[in-house]
Structures are given as C-alpha cells and as structure tokens.
Amino acid sequence: MANLLPRDQPREPFAALSAEQRARFEQRAHFLVGQSWETVARHTEGLGDSNPSGDSDGDLALELEELEAAPSFSACQAFVDRVDAVRRGSLEPTVDPSLPPGDWLLYWPGRSISSGEAEIASRGFFDVQDRPPLGLWLEAIARARAPRSREFEVAVLCYVPADVLERANAGCRLCPTGGLAMLEDFEGSGQGRGGVSDALNAQVRALGH
Predict the structure, then answer these.
(1) Is 159 helix (H, G, I), strand (E, B) or coil?
(2) From CA 2, how far away is CA 66, in angstroms rounded?
(3) Which residues pair with 154 in a beta bridge?
C-alpha cells in the first residue's frame, strides 16, 4: 500500500490549500458545517456501497476500492469530486443553530489492515477499513513523503458533526495504523511526524465549526 507511514523521516507539514482548493473546500464545507450526523447520514446513506441507488452516480464502490489499493492525489481528488456531486444532489446546506461545534478529521486511504479497532471504538462511525463516512469527505491533500521525494502521502480532509465527535475521537485513538487523526491532534510540524501547516490550519478553522 503506497500510503503507509514513512520510516521516521522528517517531513514538511501539509501545506496551505491552493486558491482553487480553498474555494472548493469552502463550498463543500457549507453543505456540512452546522448539520447533525443524523441529517447527513439520512441523505448520504449507501455512498460507497455497490450501486445502492440504482444509478451510476451512486456506485462509487469500484473507485473506492481502486483508491485504497493505490492512493494517489489525482485519484483521491477525482473520487472526492464524485462524492461531492452525489452529496449536492441529496443534501441541502442548512444550519441547526442549536448544535454545538463540530470538528475536522484527516483520513489516509490505503493504510487500513481491516482489523476493526476503529470501527468498534467509534461504534460504527468508522467502517472496518477505518474509513470515515464518505458523505463527510471534503478535500484531498498531499505532501512529499520525504525531503526531495517524488512520492507523495495523500490524505482526505473530512468534517465531523458535533453529535459524533466523541465516537470519532474514540476511533482515532484506537486506529492501529495512523490512518486517522483529528485535526487538533495533528497540528504542528515536528520533525519525524510533520503535521498541518499553520496556514492550512487557519484556512480550515476560518470556516468555524
């Protein structure tokens, strides 16, 4: 799997989103920020299953399998574009002012060993392959796996509604492969791990929760 953790090599943090990425991320986030998980789940249930809705837009299973087998930035970006197209057709951008803040999550495709710890700890919020629900995937990001390397580590920025934050945090803590991290636990740029740059963190936090 191409997206596995590098061997203790210093890495640069994930850089700020480009202007195009930022505009796209903000547009997508407005469909989710302020929504309850119950609402999102009701309108995006079945994404990633084998043709759950009976049409080609709903059938993302094969693309997801290919992404997990060989994660690349271009493939991940194209997949998240497909997810967004389906989400926009089923979910209205509404805000429930009574909800407390949600938060942000990073997911690394291709790292899972399908051992189920994150799924069990999160009470089914993550699946057996450590994946967050596809309806919450927002933007693909990438960084070099080592200085001057031409190989890239790929991750997905996801939103986590307030009513499942506790479950998401529990799943991240027990994920054995480093394939999941809440954004607040991955901030900073220490040598050997790297995190998200201050600029990227500011871009994401500017959307509020």
Answers:
(1) strand
(2) 12
(3) 142
- φ, ψ dihedrals at 103, nearest 5°: -155, -175
Concatenate the DSSP letters of all residues of 82-150 into one string. HHHHHHHTT------TTSPP-EEEEE-TT------HHHHHTTTSS-TT-PPPGGGEEEEEEEESSTT-S
- Rounded to two decimals, what is the model's pTM? 0.88
> pLDDT tens digits, residue range 65-82?
999 999 999 999 999 999
Angle at the Cα of 179 (from 181 to 27), degrees rounded to 5?
Answer: 60
Which of 126, 40, 124 has the alpha carbon at shortest distance from 90?
Answer: 40
For residue 193, pLDDT beyond 50: no
What tokens were used for 98?
């009574």
- Residue 45 burial (CB count, 10 A): 13
Q: Which amino acid is at 170?
A: A
